[in-house]
Amino acid sequence: MADQARSGVLMIAWYTRKDFNRIRKLASNGGGLQANYDEWCERADHAIQIAETAGKRGEKVIVDAGDLEKWLKNKGLESTSDN
Question: Are 19 and 79 in contact (CB under 8 A)?
């Protein structure tokens, strides 16, 4: 996270509409995500706009639900907004 701050880039996990509900279900608490894709997308886009207003570049990083699920299982982790 500190490297992101120094580099002037905000990396944000980006979910597709197709994967959004599956990703929410992976987390016991919904991962802190909004109830639906449109609300989440609006909030995520707003976070990027705020970063860009502050002189940073917003980068969307697509997260595939299947890949996330495999990664969590391999690491023995539960999906939370912390990881």
Answer: no
Residue 82 lies in a domain: no
Q: Would residue 44 count as lying in a domain?
A: yes
Q: Is 25 left (phi over 0), alpha (psi -120 to 50) or beta?
A: alpha
The two structure tokens encoding residue 15: 């979910």
Cα gap 69→8, rounded to integer Å? 29
Residue 15, φ and ψ in degrees, nearest 5: -110, 145
Task: Return the pLDDT at 1.
Answer: 46
Residue ranges making up the domain that contains 57 = 2-75
Nearest to 40 by CA among 57, 56, 63: 63
Mean pLDDT of the 70-83 span: 78
Residue 79 per-residue DSSP state: B
Backbone angles phi, psi at 35, to 5 degrees: -70, -25
pLDDT of residue 2: 47
